[in-house]
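Running this now, will post back.
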Amino acid sequence: MLCVIAYVVGSVVECMTRFRDDLEEKNNELEQTKEAFQTANKKLNLLSSITRHDILNHLTALLGYLELSQDMTTDPEIRQCPKIG
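Update: finished.
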């Protein structure tokens, strides 16, 4: 009878140990995934910021050229176009 109890307890302990090890491994994988997502998010935010800045620079240049072209023309129809900015 004592052998049966020892076998059952040993089996339960083995299962619990395996479960704990699996859980620890999954937690490590989750932590690595979390860090990868955080790094990707930082990079995407930086890229977004740079892209936004570049687009605003191009728009500013285009608006400047539009303003200059309106000032340089003598055509009354073009001069009637509303100024932007």
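DSSP finds two helices and no strands in the chain. More later if anyone needs it.
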